[in-house]
Amino acid sequence: MNLSDFLKEKLSFESYAFSWDELLIAKARKSETSLQSQLSYAIQKGDIIPLRHHFYLIIPPRYSKFGKLPIELYVNSLFEFLERNYYVGLYSAAKSYGAGHQQIQKEYILHDKAPLLSISKNAINLDFFTVSKWPKKNIASKKGDAGMYNISSPCLTAVDLIYHQTKIGGLNRMLSVLEELVEEIKLADAKDLLSWYTQKSVLQRFGYLLNEFDSESDIANLIYGHLKLEKFYPVLLSPRSNEKPGAVENRWKVDVNIKIESDL
């Protein structure tokens, strides 16, 4: 089997990624040198993108003009290769729930174990965030053209956006996304999150914003009831290393230290 036949076979099963080891197993009587030469040629043509060492993406004709694949077509294969837990999150998950007007330039993936370097290859931009306490719930399986993949639920997506706000453009950049995302959050999703999530400062900020969007929010009331079970202390709406919270005049004990500007 030559490389071209191998790629056709992979695509016939809606599989858009492969590892070097997979290719070696399928090579039949081809030498490694011959395979490496075919691989280099396919990469030059743009038919294959070497995403990580010994992990490759197949770019079929319908995606060649974009120079990339939708994340859901290969993320599961990538993290099977890396042997890690993962979920598609942040702006990437919000987009899949219909939240966010702008075309995102990066895909965001959260994972366990050691940090991963961002990937920028051709038109592909992947940003990785390490999760120290892996979620017990709120990770959904979604069906894509290449099979199932993991994605954060709307509620986990919202708290992740708030938690990582300083790394992904600040709160005002995500405000309209959060406002649209909130419409997708069900009470059961929020209850699941509260059963394991420990970042009280994030819940305070989230609750404050929920009440800004809707003063009668049931989810905000649920979160407040949960927070009241333990002590919680003043926090800044937008965390800054050189600033401490001052006087607070809301039940969430959130010091609103930025001007809130949504583009909705």
Structure write-up:
Residues 70-211 form the AbiEi antitoxin C-terminal domain. It comes from Aequorivita iocasae. InterPro entries: AbiEi_C. A hairpin with a 2-residue loop joins strand 8 and strand 9 (147-152). The N and C termini lie far apart (55 Å). The protein is of the alpha+beta class. The chain folds into two domains: 3-64; 71-255, 2-Layer Sandwich (Beta Polymerase, domain 2). The strands form four sheets. A four-stranded mixed beta sheet has the order 4-5-7-6. The chain has a three-stranded antiparallel beta sheet with strand order 1-3-2. A two-stranded antiparallel ribbon has the order 8-9. The radius of gyration is 22 Å and the shape is elongated. The chain contains eleven helices and eleven strands. The protein has helices spanning 3-12, 20-26, 32-45, 61-64, 75-82, 90-96, 154-163, 171-182, 187-194, 200-213, 218-227, and strands at residues 17-19, 48-52, 55-58, 86-88, 107-111, 119-121, 124-130, 139-144, 147-152, 235-236, 254-255. Helices cover 39% and strands 17% of the residues.
Order of helices and strands: HEHHEEHHEHEEEEEHHHHHEE
- The CATH topology of the largest domain is Beta Polymerase, domain 2
Q: In DSSP terms, counting alpha (H) and pi (I) runs of 4 or more, how many helices?
A: 11
Helix content: 25-40%
Strand order of the largest sheet: 4-5-7-6
Straight-line distance between termini: 55 Å
Gross morphology: elongated
Structural class: alpha+beta
- Percent strand equals 15-25%
Name the CATH class of the largest domain: Alpha Beta
Q: If classified by CATH, what would the architecture of the largest domain be?
A: 2-Layer Sandwich
Query: Average pLDDT across residues?
Result: 93
Q: Low-confidence spans: pLDDT under 50, at least 5 residues?
A: none
User: How many distinct domains?
Assistant: 2
Largest sheet: 4 strands, mixed
Radius of gyration (CA) equals 22 Å
Kindly state the number of beta strands.
11
Protein name: Type IV toxin-antitoxin system AbiEi family antitoxin
Pfam family, one: AbiEi_1
InterPro entries: AbiEi_C
Domain AbiEi antitoxin C-terminal: 70-211
